[in-house]
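Exercise: predict the fold of this chain.
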Amino acid sequence: MTTQSMKLKGIQENGHGTQNGFDTEQTVEAEVIEQHDIVKISESEFAVKFYIFAMLPNGQIYCTGQLYYPAILQALKVMGYYKRGRHEGAFIFLREQDNIISVKDPSQMKDAFFTQHLRHLKTHMIFYLGTRPHLMTIE
């Protein structure tokens, strides 16, 4: 994982504070997202890590607040979680850890995913679309 410092200059909004909550000038430490980790969903939407972003016609980018389902499924698989079918369309969730298989419920999977991935996700991410850097803050 690579980090980068980026110096930002705030933009005054009617003389009351600054856009993005930054002071006049502030240095932000952020994780750099590699180009191959950006997934194009449509002409105006793309995913970075577990989040979906959208681009407005004016070029402004914002986080939609939606999670990117394929990335979550892949992360759960790496964590050892699996969905297994049973009779008549029913299914159970399993987790394999150290060659021991146990039944898990969705709330346990959600807690484990949050603890391992979202709680530790850096608040600031820098990614490049073309040559232009974009700093996104996830809260």
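Check your answer against the key: Helices lie at 69-78, 106-118.
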